[in-house]
Amino acid sequence: MKKLYYSIGEVSEITDVDAHVLRYWESVFDELSPKKNKAGNRTYKENDIETILKLKELIQEKKYSTKGAQQVLKDGGTDGENEEVPVSLKKDLKEMRVFLKNLLEKL
């Protein structure tokens, strides 16, 4: 289910990152700057979700500090290790999982 824009709730569900963490990361990382609509709600695009998944991998899984994660993003997004699954594929798989979960709940 591809969309042009995602709400913070949808992004939180897709990435499994709490909304308050997303807002914090927005204040720390220049690479993450979702636009706000007229109502003041954040609107995330596909590339924002990919950035969030990369940050989640660096900070929550590989235990980088925010400064370390900033350096990795500044250096082009690679931390020197072989990436097993591309971030864009992870995003698509997580999005599919959320869609299927919601579909199952409706049955």
Automatic annotation (TrEMBL):
Q: Work out whether the entry's keyword set contains DNA-binding.
A: yes
Q: Where is the HTH merR-type domain?
A: 5-75
What name has this protein been given in UniProt?
DNA-binding transcriptional regulator, MerR family
Q: Which residues form a coiled coil?
A: none
Q: Which UniProt keywords apply?
A: DNA-binding
Q: Which Gene3D superfamilies match?
A: 1.10.1660.10
GO terms for molecular function, please? DNA binding; DNA-binding transcription factor activity
Q: Does the keyword Methyltransferase apply?
A: no
The record ties this protein, via InterPro entries, to:
DNA-bd_dom_put_sf (IPR009061), MerR-type_HTH_dom (IPR000551), MerR_fam (IPR047057)
